[in-house]
Structure formats: C-alpha cells, structure tokens
Design goal:
The chain is mainly alpha-helical. Helices cover 48% and strands 9% of the residues. It has one domain. It is built from 5 helices and 4 strands, in the order ααββαββαα. The protein has a two-stranded antiparallel sheet. The chain is rod-shaped, with a radius of gyration of 29 Å. The model is unreliable at 152-156 (pLDDT under 50).
Length: 162
C-alpha cells in the first residue's frame, strides 16, 4: 500500500513543478448563474400561474340550468341549480369566468397573482363559502410544486405531463 501512495505523491509533486501559478485562473460565474436561474424561475412561475388560472376557469364553468317560464315565457334560472355552500360557483352570466386573470409582479422576485377584479368574486371567495381561487390553489398545489421544481430545460416538460 505504501508504494502506490509514494508514487501518487511523486506524480503530484512533478505536476505542481510544471504548473506555474500564472497559468492558473479562477473564474466566478455565480452572477450569471443567478441571473439564469432567476429568468428560469420567472418563466416557471408564469407557467404555474397560467395553469392555475386555466383550472380556476374550468372549475367555475358549470352553468346553472335555465328554463322558460310557463306564464311569462321568459328564460329563468332554476333556483335549485345554483351553487350550494362549499361548491364552486356556477356560471350564470359567465362574467366571473371571463374576468379571471394572472399577472407577474414587478421586481426581481418571481411572483405572480391569480385573481379577479370583480367585487362579486371577493364576496364568493371570502363571505359566501364558495371559494374558487383558494380551493383550486390547494387542489393544484402538488402540480404547481412540480412545475416550479422539475429540471431546468424545456425538454423536462413533455406535452401533457402535468
């Protein structure tokens, strides 16, 4: 065992003598790596936000039932078809569904907002026990975590893998 160790030490000493300190150079690419990671994460956050927004729209897409009133002849909404507490809101005018949006926040941090600008959406979410944004977020959390943590290249995301 001693002979191989001596030989390795001898070879290392020879190599060290041949190498001049001026030939070696250390380069730090940390800033470029951080920039690349930040750009990649912003793209991933946008993808996760778009995916969440799309799922929210699907979840609130069920329409209420309509019928023509026997006396008035007008189209009316069947009151039994409206959403119940704990259910996703049902689409009546589809205004809420078309108002769901996502946008990136301004700044260096990779953040995005998914929401609605309608006061009605806030009432449904917080006061009427018909949460659609938080509930979808909680249901989709494992998928969103995968989007944010899988690989670094676009080849890591085959079509329909999420």
């Amino acid at each position: 065992m001693a002979a191989p160790m001596k030989f390795a030490a001898k070879r290392a000493a020879q190599k060290a003598r041949r190498t001049k300190s001026s030939d070696m150079q250390i380069k730090w690419f940390g800033e470029q790596v951080k920039k690349d990671v930040r750009i990649g994460m912003r793209a991933r956050v946008g993808w996760a936000a778009q995916t969440l927004r799309d799922r929210v729209v699907v979840n609130i897409n069920d329409p209420v039932r309509r019928f023509t009133g026997p006396r008035s002849g007008r189209v009316q909404v069947d009151p039994t078809s409206r959403s119940k507490k704990g259910e996703f809101p049902k689409a009546d005018t589809t205004r809420l569904r078309t108002d769901i949006f996502w946008q990136r926040t301004i700044g260096d941090t990779p953040e995005a907002i998914v929401g609605t600008t309608l006061d009605y959406g806030l009432r449904l979410e917080l006061h009427m026990n018909r949460s659609f944004l938080r509930r979808t977020m909680n249901d989709f959390l494992p998928r969103i975590k995968r989007i944010l943590t899988v690989g670094h290249g676009s080849s890591d995301f085959p079509n329909n893998s999420f």
